[in-house]
Amino acid sequence: VIQFMSLLSHLHTKSDEDGVHDSFSQLIQEQCHDLHDVIEMTPLDPEEESRGQILTRNRPLRQESRPSIQHFPRSARPSIRGYGVETDAAGFEEEENKRERLVNNLQNLSDSDRVRMLRAMPLSLSEKKELRMLVLNKAEHSVSQNQIPCCSQLKYYIIIALRHGWYSWLSFLSSLQLWQTALKCVGGRFGTGVLSYFIFLRTLLFFNVFMFLVTGLLLVVPQAIAHPDLDQNITVRSTWGLEVLTGAGYFSHSLLYYGYYSNKPLQTGHSCSASSNKTSSSCGLSYNMPLIYFFTIGALYRFLLMDFIFMLLDTFFGEFLWRVFSQKALKRERKPVFDIARNVLELIYGQTLAWLGVLFSPLLPAVQIIKLLFLFYMKKVSLKMNCQASGKPWRACQMTTIFITLLCFPAFLGAAVCVTYTMWTIKPSASCGPFQGLKNMFQAGKRWFQELAAANPDLHWLPSAHAYLVENPLFLFLSAGIFLIVIYFHSQVVDGQRKIIELLQEQIENEGEDKKFLITRLQHIHERKRRVTPRRVKEASEVHTHTLTHAYTYTHIHTHSHTHTHSLIYTHTHTHTLTHTHTHTHTHTHTHLHTHIHAHTHAHTHTHTHTRALTRAHTLTHSHTHSLM
Amino acid sequence: MGGTSSKLPKDLLSEYQELTFLTKQEILMAHKIFSELQDRENGPYSSRVSMEKVLTLPELKSNPFRKRICHVFSTSDMKDGSLSFEDFLDLLSAFSDSATLEIKSHYAFRIFDFDDDGTLDARDLEKLVNSLTGETDDTRLTAEEMRQLISNILEESDIDKDGTVNLSEFQHVISRSPDFVRSPGIHSPVRRQQHSVFRAQRQAHGTQFRAERTEKRRFGHDVPS
User: Fold this and answer.
1) Which of A45, A378, A467, A498 to pair with A613, CA 20 to 30 A apart?
2) Where are the beta strands (DSSP E) in B30-159?
3) Residues A324, A328, A330, A332: is their CA dihedral positive or negative?
4) Cβ of B215 and A511 within 8 Å?
C-alpha cells in the first residue's frame, strides 16, 4: 500500500513544487543528525489538482506530511533536535549549495505558488525575508537581461496595478464586516452553533438592506420628494403611541403603505418621472380597497410587530427567568442552553412576513432592519447573562446551509408565489395607489408600451410585440420549459458529484484502514526489536546505535518505495520482475477492500520478487517478509 | 515618554503580507500594539521587547503556555524570550485562522516540548497536562490518573515505541483530531480512541479553564491552549 500510494503521489507530483519540497527537505535533512527523520520524508501531495489522477478533482482530505524541520544555524531559536548544528566550514558550504538549490526551485514557481510555499514554511520571518530577497534578485537578473518592449511593459504595469487594486478591494471587504468583533466573542465563548445563528441573522440583515435599497431608491425617494396633493379628507389621529403598535392612523397615509403612492404625474412636470410612476409593475403595488384594509390596518405590519414583541417576551421569559428559576428553585449547576433551532425558525418566520408584506408596504424592509438590529444586541446581552455553551458539538457549516435552504424554499418561494398571484389576479383599487383603474398589475406594463409607441412612431411594433411575447401563454411555457431543463441539468451534475463524493469517502476509509494496519505492524516490529536488543540505557551513543538499526529498516522501506516509483519509468530496462510487482501492487490495493489476509499474501509475494531484483537490500527484505508473514 | 509612532514602510508591509498569514489591517494593528509595548520599555529605542512586557498583553496573560510561546518564537541570541517585531508577527501568523495545519502543529509541538530536546517524553507530557488542568489542587490530576493518561497518549501516538512522541507522530495524531482539522476526518476506531483521550484531557480541567479564556477584543485570534 505504501508503494501504491507513493507511486500515485509521485505520478502527479511532476510539478515544480516537487523540486521545492525536495530541495527544502534535502536542506533540512542535511542538518539533521537523527536518522529518525528519514521516515518522515514521505512524498508530498500538492494542493492543487493533480494530473493523471481520475478522482482527485474533489479530493477532500489533503495528505500533507512535511519533513521535520531544522533551522538555519544562524538563527538562535531553539532547534527541535537538541543535538546542535554543524558549524564547520565543510558543512556550511554544503548547506549553502542546498540553499541555492532551494532558491532556484522557488524561483521556478509561479508567483502565487511561491507565496504559498514561503508562507507555509515554518521558518522565522527574517529567514523567509532572506530567501525571498534571493529569489527576487535572481528573478530581476534574468528579467533585466531581456529587453522588454514598451507595450508589454505597460501591460506589466497594468497587471501589477490591477492586482494591487484587487488585493486592497479584498482587504477592504474583509474589514467591512459588520459586528466582526462581537461575533468573535460570541463564537469563542459559546461555540460555533450559536455563532451560526448570529451569522444567519446578519445575512438576513444584509438581504433586507439590499431590498430596502432597491425599493427605497426606486420607489420611495421619488415619491417622497415630489408628492402630488391628495384630497385630505381623512382626519389624522394624534395619538402617537397607539399608532406605532397598530400601524393605523397617521401611518396609513404615510410612506409606509401603498396608499401613499399614486399614479398621477408629478407636479415637477418631468415627463420621464411621470412615466416611471406608471411603470415598474415589479415595484408597484396593487391596491384593492378591502385588500389594502386587510394589509395595512390589519395583518402584516402588525404581524411583524407582534413577532418582535413575542421575541422580546420569549427572550425574557425563556432565557432570563428560566435561568433564575433553574438556579434558585431547581438548583441546577448550569445555565440553560441557547436554543438555536427555535430562534432560527423565528427569524425565518419574521423574514417571510417581511417578504409577503413588501408588496403592499414598501418600507417594511426598513422596519425589518430596525427589528433585526434590535434583536442582535438583545440576543447578545441575553446570551451573556443567561446561557452557557452547549455540551453537544454542532456542525456549523452544514447548519448554515440548512438555514439558508429553509429560508429559500418554504419561506421565499411561498412569499414569491403569493406576491405573483396577487399581482396577476387581484384587481387594483380604483381610488388610490399607482395601479388605479387597471385590471391587474401587469396591465401597467402594457400601458407603458402603448404609450411609448404613441409617443414615438418608430416603436409601433412594441405593443404588438408585447402582446405576442408577454401575454401569449406559449412564451411562458417555453421559458418555463427552458428553466426546467436548466434545473434538470444542474441536478444531474449534483448527482454525479454526490457519487464521486461517496467514492472518495470510501477511498478515504480504506486508506485509513490501511494506515491503521501498517501502524500496528510497525508497532509490533518495534516491540519485537526492543525485546531482542539490549535494554535502553541513558547513554546517547547507545540510543543512537539502537535507532540506527531501526532507521535502517525504515530507509529500506523508504528507498524501497522510492526506487519503485522512480523505476516505473525505467523498469523495463532493469528487470521484468519489477514490472511484475507493479501490477501486483495494483491488484493488491484493489483487493485490499476485501480482506486483509489477502493483502498479506500479496505483499509477501511482492517483496519476494523484489529480492530477486535488488541485490543490496537482500538481507533486510528477508526480515521484512518475515514480519509480514 | 512620548511614543515614537513610526509608520511601517509600504514595501515592508507588502513583504510581511506575502510572507505571513496576516492581512494588512492585522499587520498594522500588530505594529501599533508592538510600538506601545516598546514605548513602555525604559531606555532607548530598542528593537526587542522583553518577555515580561510581552506577557502583559491580555491575549497571552492567562494562557498557560505563555512563557513557552515567547521562548519558541524568540530569535534572540540571549535566549531570554524577548521578541522583535518580526517574531511578534510570526507568533500572530502561526495562531491566525488561515495558518496551515502543518505550521500550527509544528509550532504546537515546539511549544509543548518543555525541555527542547525535540521529542515529547513523559515529563513533557506531564507538564503539558498539568498546564492544562490548572493551578489549584482540586483540578489537577492525581499521580495515578496522570500515569494512566500518559500511557494512553503514548499508546495512541508513539509509533516507534521509544517512549516519546516525535514531530511526525505528533503531526499524525493532530491531523486526526477534530479541533485542528477543518475537513471531516476518517471514521476509524483509532480516531475514536484518540477522541476519548483528548476528551479526557479537556474534561479534567472543567469549567475553570473556560472561565479563564479572555475576550479577544483586539485581534479575535484564539491562542490555542
Assistant:
1) A45
2) 48-49, 83-84
3) positive
4) no
Query: Taking a C-beta distance cutoff of 8 angstroms, is the pair A256, A247 a contact?
Result: yes
Task: For B65-90, give one letter per residue: b (16+ CB within 10 A) or e.
Answer: bbbbbbbbbbbbeeeebbbbbbbbbb
Name the grid cell of A577: 520482475
**Nearest-CA neighbor of B90 among B31, B21, B33, B14?**
B21
CB contact under 8 A, B167 and A171: no
Q: DSSP states of A324-355 as a string?
A: HHHHHTS--SSPPBP-HHHHHHHHHHHHHHHH
- Long-range Cβ pairs for the range B185-194 (8 Å, 24+): B185/A61, B186/A61, B186/A508, B186/A509, B186/A511, B186/A512, B187/A509, B187/A512, B188/A509, B188/A512, B188/A513, B188/A516, B190/A516, B190/B156, B191/A512, B193/B156, B194/B156
Helix (H, G, I), strand (E, B) or coil at B151: helix
A179: left (phi over 0), alpha (psi -120 to 50) or beta: left
In whole angstroms, what is the distance from residue A543 CA to residue A549 CA?
10
Question: CA of A507: which chain B residue's CA is closest?
Answer: B186
Restricting to A residues 370-389, those with a Cβ less than 8 Å away from any Cβ of B are 389
Q: Comparing C-alpha atoms, which of A123, A101, A105 is closest to residue A113?
A: A105
- DSSP states along A60-84: -S----PPP----TT--SPPSSTT-
What cell does B177 get?
483530531
- Whether residues B75 and A77 touch (CB distance < 8 A) is answered with yes
Rounded-to-integer distance, Cα A43 and Cα A535, Å: 34
ipTM of the predicted structure? Answer: 0.70
B110 to A115: CB separation less than 8 angstroms, yes or no:
no
Contact between A259 and A288 (Cβ < 8 Å): no
Torsion of CA A162, A167, A169, A174, to 10 degrees: 170
Q: What is the pLDDT of residues B67-118, one digit of tens each?
A: 899 999 988 888 888 888 889 999 999 988 888 888 888 999 999 999 988 8
Contacts of B87 in chain A (CB under 8 A): 124-125
Contact of A271 with chain B, judged by CB distance below 8 Å, is answered with no
User: Distance between CA A459 and CA A456 in Å, rounded?
Assistant: 6
Residue A136 with chain B: CB contacts under 8 Å: none
* Residue B33: C-alpha distances to residues A10, A209, A593, B43 (Å): 46, 35, 56, 18
Residue ranges of A 320-359 with Cβ closer than 8 A to chain B: none
Residue ranges, chain A, pLDDT below 70 = 1-93, 95, 142-151, 174-176, 218-301, 318, 329-335, 359-362, 387, 389-397, 426-449, 451-453, 456-463, 466-471, 533-629
CA angle A337–A312–A205, rounded 5-degree value: 90
Grid coordinates given for B150: 500518559
Strand-pair category, B48-49 with B83-84: antiparallel
| C-beta neighbour count of A513 within 10 angstroms | 18
Does residue A544 belong to the interface with chain B, where contact is any CB pair within 8 Å? no
Cβ atoms of A587 and A602 within 8 Å: the answer is yes
* A525 close to B (CB below 8 A): no
DSSP letter assigned to residue A42: -
In this complex, is the C-beta atom of A62 within 8 Å of any C-beta atom belonging to chain B?
yes
Nearest to B219 by CA among A17, A201, A218, A180: A180
From chain B, pick out residues whose CB is under 8 angstroms from the CB of A547. 162
Question: Cell triple for residue B133?
Answer: 488542568
DSSP state at residue A320: I
Determine the length of chain A.
629
pLDDT digits (tens, 9 = 90+) for A443-472: 666 666 676 667 766 666 666 776 666 667
